[in-house]
Amino acid sequence: MKAYSLELRKKIVLAHLVQKMSIRKVAIMFGVSKSLVQKLVKQQQSEGNLQPKQRGKPQFSHLANAEALIRILVAEHQDATQGRAM
User: Fold this and answer.
1) Helix, coil or strand: residue 31
2) Among the residues of 1-86, which ranges form H helices?
3) Do the Cβ atoms of 40 and 13 come closer than 8 Å?
4) Would you state the torsion angle of the CA atoms of residues 19, 8, 40, 4, taken in this order, to the nearest 10 degrees?
5) Angle of CA points 40, 43, 4, to nearest 5°
6) Residue 24 scores a pLDDT above 90
7) Are 53 and 43 in contact (CB under 8 A)?
């Protein structure tokens, strides 16, 4: 599911904080869940922005910092990197 636009997020938070509408009424008005309204209000108050969070787990390589070690191992065992004919 795509993240809600920043403009919609701002309208939701403004309706609750500035217009003093209840979370339930804001949710009904914009067709979103009460938990989304609560989450956005909390995010605005704690982080000061309404940017969508990045989804999914960050991907990383287990070899990212191993280049120096790999170079040493290759230098010590040069024959291990060459393919063998069968």
Assistant:
1) coil
2) 6-17, 23-30, 34-47, 67-76
3) yes
4) 160
5) 40
6) yes
7) no
**Cβ neighbours of 40 (radius 10 Å):** 20
Contact in structure between 51 and 44 (CB atoms under 8 Å): no
The model scores a pTM over 0.85: no
Cα dihedral across residues 56, 52, 28, 1: positive or negative: negative
Three-state DSSP state, 83: coil
In whole angstroms, give the CA distance from residue 31 to residue 75: 63
Query: What's the rounded mean pLDDT across residues 35-51?
Result: 94
Cβ–Cβ contacts within 10 Å for residue 15, how many? Answer: 19
